[in-house]
């Protein structure tokens, strides 16, 4: 085999491998409802036992009404709560914002997100790898996309609660919130002091705030 052919084959394998692992794999059947029966060894529920209820979820009709300290209440709709999504390469989230509520800077390592404003006015944006910010206020009926893996954020700037419906092109997009990842993961405090130019007292306060609760 000539050198050119070898290089071509290697390039094809690497290129194909990149796209193979860049997103959820294509399904090999019409559907594969996640099997929650621990008695069986199959990852898919028997298709003959499927019903329309396997493809419907009603849990995001309304907000939970319970906001966290940032003023956010979210209801994820992934394969764990909606088995019919299994292998379909998508998931959802309903995010409700109290007045002044924020969705802190975060990112999804495995998915692009499309956010549709159901109610309210949201200051929304993301930062690219050159530290350019793309942000504006989006209102009811408007949509914004957050490219996969980029840090993004949202804040309710209206005078009443707001709601966003987010859609992901992965059944398991992943979520990493920047404040918790940096100050709540156990990174050595001396490193954080040097990285952020803060005192040991200030760093200790932040690590205590974002440390995981028992």
Automatic annotation (TrEMBL):
Q: Which SMART domains match?
A: Cupin_1
> Keywords in UniProt for this one?
Apoplast, Disulfide bond, Glycoprotein, Manganese, Metal-binding, Secreted, Signal
Domain (Cupin type-1) spans 58-204
One matching Pfam family is Cupin_1
* Protein name, UniProt field: Germin-like protein
Q: Which InterPro entries match?
A: Cupin_1 (IPR006045), Germin (IPR001929), Germin_Mn-BS (IPR019780), RmlC-like_jellyroll (IPR014710), RmlC_Cupin_sf (IPR011051)
**Compartment(s) where it occurs, according to its Swiss-Prot or TrEMBL record:** Secreted, Extracellular space, Apoplast
Determine if rRNA-binding is one of this entry's keywords. no
The family assignment reads:
Belongs to the germin family.
Signal sequence segment: 1-22
